[in-house]
Amino acid sequence: MGVLQSTLLYLILLHYFKIVAYKDQEWRKATATYAKDSEGSLVTEGACGYGDLHKASYRKHNAGLSTMLFNRGSTCGACYEIRCVDHILWCVMGSPSVVVTVTDFCAPNYGLSVDYGGWCNFPREHFEMSQAAFAEIAKNKADIVPVQYRRVKCERSGGMRFTMSGGSHFYQVLISNVGLYGEVIAVKVKGSKTGWIPMARNWGQNWHCNVNFQNQPLSFEVTISSGKTLTSYNVAPAKWMFGQTFEGKQFQEE
């Protein structure tokens, strides 16, 4: 078997096992802290690029992931169910769970040990949760708590959102409010004067290409980590402007 065939087989098997895992995923061990924020969300400019989390529909239940889980930004938009365990003093009684959306990166600090401040150091699995989400599973007086987590499907209201940015020959779109598996792995864009053009991940869930799309209605083809693809035609009108956000279709349970 050649290299190309082996690579294709690997990708097919990877998608298969990923889909199976999401349907019946076991709980895994990690740790969690929280970021203090008067509005209950992490930051307004996280590593996923969503900006104001309230406007991006992720609101108060969000989290930053350690390097091990963040996967260079490809996990942005994914959803995790988290519960506090094995700590009578700090865990909320009954170990209730909360679902959070990945919106940020928890940077490592190799100047500190993994047991004291270096909680996001590789290869540790750690969640830096919003204060509002953390309060649903543990007491705010807690410093760091042991948790269990698992991937779950994302429940979203409305369609996927496409936010335009860039310049005359550099086009970028931020994709947010993605349902089901949440994480986008491939994007194509089509103007009225072009065919389908693959976009590259710039950072987080910002995707770009070096094409001038001005004065063209735009369509998008989005593929999520399950391998499912959804096409939203003519999402943006011909007179779209940078900074605007448009709503497309939404991934639905089959």
UniProtKB/TrEMBL annotation:
Q: One biological process GO term for this chain?
A: plant-type cell wall organization
Give a GO cellular-component term. Answer: membrane
Q: Domain Expansin-like EG45, which positions?
A: 45-159
A Pfam family annotated for this UniProt entry: DPBB_1
Q: Which residues form the signal peptide?
A: 1-22
Q: Where is the Expansin-like CBD domain?
A: 169-248
CDD domains under this entry?
A: DPBB_EXPA_N
Q: Which family does it belong to?
A: Belongs to the expansin family. Expansin A subfamily.
Report the protein name in the record.
Answer: Expansin
Q: Which organism is it from?
A: Sphenostylis stenocarpa
Tell me the lineage of the source organism. Eukaryota, Viridiplantae, Streptophyta, Embryophyta, Tracheophyta
